[in-house]
Design goal:
alpha+beta, two-stranded antiparallel ribbon, five-stranded mixed beta sheet, rod-shaped, 7 strands
């Protein structure tokens, strides 16, 4: 593992540990505050229930006392209904209040006194009602007037008010604690969030720097791979083209060279036949020779032998031309290229000037449009390519119109130059547009001398310069040859 990767791993682990610690701290603090808040909330609920139960208890006791006095004053049985209702509710409320104050020392200590006083009050009210029901109403009123019941009721109210006051105080204190706990939770959340954001920012910065370094390294690798792929593609294409050339040469050797050999072999047999007729006549050694033998010997000497020798000579000449063409193509690949700066406009003007007489004879005109003005290449090869294209344009001009030859140059991409040679000549049929670049292959009307090696030679030269040539044409309208060459051949030569 590299030093950069080790540093990245260590920094990432450190930030992860810090972030995890902060998160655990937030979780623990939040859990503690939540537990405290929950306990405080439960405490407030119980204090609220104590206050409500105490209030209900004193209210029911007051209702019972009101019903008692109303009955004593009016002897109306309807006043006893609220008395009995309040009385039945007070027992359960007193038991509930006793349960609620458990664990609260001050209230729990006063609970027996409250129960005794309430029981005394209930006894006092029950006694007065019993006296009134038995006809001793005046005795019951005197008992009420002694104010013993009022004093008990005041003591009960004092205890109940104390319960309510303490519950209210506890509720207020619990609410304050709730607010404080909420504030603490907010501060912990905000502080923890800020800390986590800081840790995340640091981690993201480290990740960003690492990713940027990775992208930079990846771009360098892709750049190297792109160059490697381009070089491999170029080598592969060169090998494919070389293989095609080898196959083409093999076809030429087996086909084009074989035809003259077959002719030579056939006329050699004709020579042998004619020679036998002459031998029969010349080597007669004084023996009589028939008229047929004399006629055959004369025919062989005057016609057969010259004809066979002529065909043999033309076949050997054909073979010699084919072999010389093959040697010429093969020499293109062996010649050492000499890349040098070439100004295109002066070069094209020089080639056009060298062919000025031929162009003028055909009322021709050459126009140049040089947007790309310069490239580094092998001057001799480029001159041969362009000269051959100019020659073909003149050679295959349309017989019914003056020659119009246009040459355009332009940059193509960052590393290529495009040279177009356009004419208004005979044109090439679509099916023959690739065939014209093959060795010993010609297309169209064969009314001009040639062996079909010109454009094959041009393509060979173009490929040697690291480029390619193609043609687009319409029969009877003209052709456009497109030459694509690298703008700097020296870089290809070095690679």
């Amino acid at each position: 593992m590299s030093a950069t990767q080790t540093s990245f791993v260590r920094s990432t682990i450190l930030f992860m540990l810090i972030g995890t610690g902060i998160l655990l701290g937030i979780v623990v603090a939040t859990f503690g505050l939540v537990e405290k808040t929950s306990a405080t909330f439960d405490y407030i609920i119980v204090e609220r229930d104590i206050r409500r139960t105490a209030a209900d208890l004193i209210q029911n006791l007051t209702d019972a006392e009101t019903g008692q006095r109303g009955y004593l004053l009016t002897q109306d049985e309807s006043f006893l209904a609220p008395y009995h209702k309040a009385l039945s509710a007070m027992n359960s409320e007193l038991e509930l209040l006793s349960q609620q104050v458990r664990g609260r020392a001050i209230k729990q200590e006063r609970m027996p006194e409250l129960q005794r006083l309430i029981q005394a009050k209930l006894t006092e009210m029950a006694r007065t009602l019993d006296l009134a029901k038995t006809g001793q109403r005046d005795e019951a009123v005197r008992l009420v007037q002694t104010e013993v019941g009022r004093e008990v009721m005041d003591q009960i109210r004092t205890i109940i008010d104390d319960f309510k006051q303490k519950s209210d105080s506890n509720v207020d204190r619990g609410a304050s604690e709730q607010v404080e706990a909420t504030q603490h939770l907010q501060w912990i959340t905000v502080g923890g969030g800020i800390a986590i954001l800081a840790v995340m920012s640091g981690a993201m910065l480290i990740v960003y720097q690492h990713v940027r370094e990775l992208l930079k390294a990846r771009q360098e690798v892709e750049h190297l791979n792109a160059g490697l792929e381009a070089r491999v593609a170029e080598r592969t294409e060169d090998l494919m083209q070389a293989n095609q050339e080898i196959q083409r040469f093999a076809y030429i050797v087996t086909h084009d060279l074989r035809a003259p050999l077959v002719n030579i072999m056939g006329f050699t047999a004709e020579l042998d036949t004619s020679l036998k007729s002459l031998q029969a006549y010349v080597l007669a050694d004084g023996t009589s020779v028939s008229e047929d033998m004399i006629r055959e010997a004369r025919l062989a000497a005057s016609e057969d032998l010259p004809e066979a020798i002529g065909f043999i000579r033309s076949s050997t000449k054909k073979m010699d031309g084919l072999i010389n063409a093959i040697l010429k193509i093969s020499r293109d690949g062996r010649r050492q290229l000499k890349p040098e700066p070439v100004e295109l406009k002066p070069l094209l003007e020089t080639i056009a000037a060298s062919l000025h007489h031929q162009i003028s004879e055909n009322d021709g005109h050459v126009s140049l449009d040089t947007k790309a003005t310069r490239l580094v290449t092998d001057r001799l090869s480029l001159e041969q390519i362009l000269g051959n294209l100019f020659d073909n344009a003149i050679k295959y001009k349309h017989p019914d119109r003056p020659l119009e030859l246009t040459v355009r140059t332009a940059s193509e991409g960052r590393h290529m130059v495009r040279i177009e040679v356009q004419d208004n000549g005979r044109g090439i049929a679509e099916q023959d547009q690739e065939r014209v670049f093959e060795l010993f292959r010609r297309a169209g009307q064969q009314d001009k001398t040639g062996e079909g090696i010109g454009l094959a030679h041009v393509r060979s030269l173009a490929r040697n310069l690291g480029g390619e040539i193609s043609v687009s044409s319409r029969l009877g309208e003209g052709s456009t040859f497109v030459l694509r060459l690298p703008s700097d051949l020296s870089r290809l030569v070095r690679s």
